[in-house]
């Protein structure tokens, strides 16, 4: 019981620290249209962590509280998977077709992709909510259903991560073969950032998949431990997303630090270079 409380406390600290420190500043620092995906991630993260706070309020019964928390986490996991794939596709087009990037990612195209990111998670969630056990974990039948739903989500996340790796590695290979990498330093940072988020997502899916296998094998203790590890990695995912963008984009880093009134520490590069990078599409990760 003490270990569970400690794990839950760790998760709460990770999620709400990210919500207040990392994501609160984003709506005020995003000033360019190609950051629309990071803005979407930010808003969904804040909304979902706010909803998850109900599970810590003590207003719900223990059974409903667990089921409610699983619903929120499941939606966030599905959202992260589809969102990461969209970002990888965006990165793919920015590397392969840098001159056509703005023509591809018009307001209409960005809106359509945003719709599909949200619709993907909502459709999956709606399917799960058709079962009468969606709000309960009190019976073994309902527990098995909740485990099965997590199993499906884990497979979905793994597939998204594999697709993301295929897009990024394919784009890098084609770009190197054609010799079209405009800025080796910037491109390397962006590729590493996107690979880091995709690798984190793969770890989330893998740990959840292993956790579900341990449940079906009857190794409940290992199931619980692995599931908690997966939840912690999922909580760290937003740190990888924002941290990678912070390191890769000078304009984002300067705007972000200015929000916290630390202007003197963020002026590490000239404004001319920053504008040049942004206009070339070199930092168009999102």
TrEMBL record:
The chain crosses the membrane at residues 12-30, 37-56, 68-92, 104-128, 148-169, 190-211, 223-248. Keywords: Membrane, Transmembrane, Transmembrane helix. The keyword 4Fe-4S does not apply. The keyword Amino-acid biosynthesis does not apply. It comes from the Eukaryota. This is Serpentine receptor class gamma. It comes from Panagrellus redivivus (Microworm).
